[in-house]
Amino acid sequence: MTYEQRKQERQALIDHLMNQDWNVFGTLKFVNGRAIGRSSADKLLRSYWNRIDRMFFGKAAERQNMRVPRWCFAHEGSDHENYHVHFVMKSAPNNTESMCCLLNAVWAQHHTQTAPLAKNWIMPVQDRAAVASYVTHEYWRMGSDTILDKLSWTVEQSYHLTDHALDEHYTQQQAQRIQRAASPLWLRQAQQALDDQKAAYEACSDLQMMERG
């Protein structure tokens, strides 16, 4: 594939992302991204997203395909060996910071191989164009392999998550599932990690910093 073809494909992917509804940008890391192995990493990621879907929608996640829309991308870092995943998604419920903390807390507790709170970066989106460019920047090298179709879930595949629908399903049962998934202590620690990361980002506005942790 020529440089020009790959450039056009990447731009089409960016354009597609910009037309979707998302307001959270995240990076999920592993304790050792160089040793985890792609197969083991993907199993952990699938089980994590299944857990997130069940946390919000209970049994309807499987029965009615009610899943949180998300777009996931594999990255391997500058040395091509540090496997990690970036994603964009719509916050559910509408408190975006709470959603970021919850996602981080659940991932940090998910397995002994998933990274601690401070190593993951999950933040409200401040610049959609910059994020869309960033999550696709390894398309130059990986091509379509950077797109994790098996982890992603679009509104076309799923229940259409309007704000009304998100509010409608934020029930007492859902609140209990969330509490079981992440204790108040974990959420407070995740909030501290988020505050630190927001301050670091606002100091230099460089998305590349999340690769360094």
**Low-pLDDT stretches:** none
Element pattern in H and E: HEHHEEHEHHHHH
What is the total number of structural domains? Answer: 1
- By secondary-structure content and strand pairing, the structural class works out as alpha+beta
| Helix coverage percent | 40-55%
Give a verbal description of the structure:
The chain is built from 9 helices and 4 strands; from the N terminus they run αβααββαβααααα. The chain has 213 residues and is α+β, with helices and mostly antiparallel strands. It has one domain. The two termini are 33 Å apart.
Task: Produce the secondary structure layout.
Elements: H1 3-18, E1 24-28, H2 38-57, H3 60-63, E2 70-75, E3 84-89, H4 96-110, E4 121-124, H5 128-135, H6 139-142, H7 163-168, H8 172-181, H9 184-204
Antiparallel strand pairs: 1-3, 1-4, 2-3
Helix pairs in contact: 1-5, 2-8, 4-9
Task: Quickly list its features.
single chain, 213 residues, alpha+beta, 4-stranded antiparallel beta sheet, 9 helices, 10% strand, globular
Quick gist of this model?
The chain has one domain. The longest helix has 21 residues, at 184-204. With 213 residues, the protein is an alpha+beta fold.
